[in-house]
Design goal:
By secondary structure, the chain is α+β, with helices and mostly antiparallel strands. The chain is 38% helix and 26% strand. The chain has five helices and eight strands; from the N terminus they run ααβββββαβαββα. The strands form two sheets. Strands 5-2-1-8-7-6 form a six-stranded antiparallel beta sheet. A two-stranded antiparallel sheet has the order 3-4.
Length: 183
């Protein structure tokens, strides 16, 4: 647990390299591997989670969980609900899907669930993934430090990353579908 870890200085060059590497990938696993390398190189990041939208059922389905935490993703819950499948009416993560606007929780605004307190997570950012054709899902980043300042500056960059992630996943899924047809 790295609770005293300070955020690393933002490096635009590494960030842009990550965005470009994600969109060049041809598999969903490749896209997630690029993201994994970027975020796990940031000591202040505790975990990332990606959910894809199921518009028909108004739910989010967990498709990626990367973490330094000991608690497995199926043990993480909010208001007694599993974070593996989240309805849009959930007021922690589902709200981002419903309103398609980011949420930032830190300081007094982050009511830490038991797993977050146990893991030393003190703040998080939950972002919609939007692509040209519309809403695709939600990307969340959980942090060890309790950000009091500078969090909103990071929001604009990480919002861009979430949208690139959505586009990269859309492209990778299309390439995977083409490969299945070819076989």
């Amino acid at each position: 647990m790295l609770t005293d870890t300070e955020p690393q200085k933002f490096r635009l060059d590494l960030f842009l390299q990550t965005l470009m590497a994600m969109v060049r990938e041809r598999t969903t696993e490749g896209v997630f591997n690029v993201g994994r390398q970027y975020f796990l190189s940031r000591d202040h990041v505790a975990a990332t989670m990606t959910w894809l939208a199921d518009q028909q059922n108004q739910t989010l389905e967990l498709c990626q969980f990367e973490s330094r935490c000991k608690t497995p993703p199926d043990a993480w819950s909010i208001n007694g609900r599993s974070m593996v499948k989240i309805p849009y009416d959930d007021d922690f993560i589902g709200t981002v899907a419903k309103e398609q606007s980011p949420r930032v929780y830190y300081g007094n605004t982050f009511i830490q669930p038991g797993w977050a307190e146990q893991e030393g997570i003190r703040s998080c950012m939950i972002l919609p993934m939007e692509i040209k054709s519309g809403f695709m899902g939600v990307f969340a980043i959980f942090f060890y430090p309790r950000f009091e300042t500078g969090f909103h500056e990071s929001l604009k960059w990480l919002r861009m990353l979430a949208d690139y992630l959505g586009a990269a996943l859309t492209n990778a899924r299309a390439f995977e579908s083409i490969e299945q047809v070819r076989q």
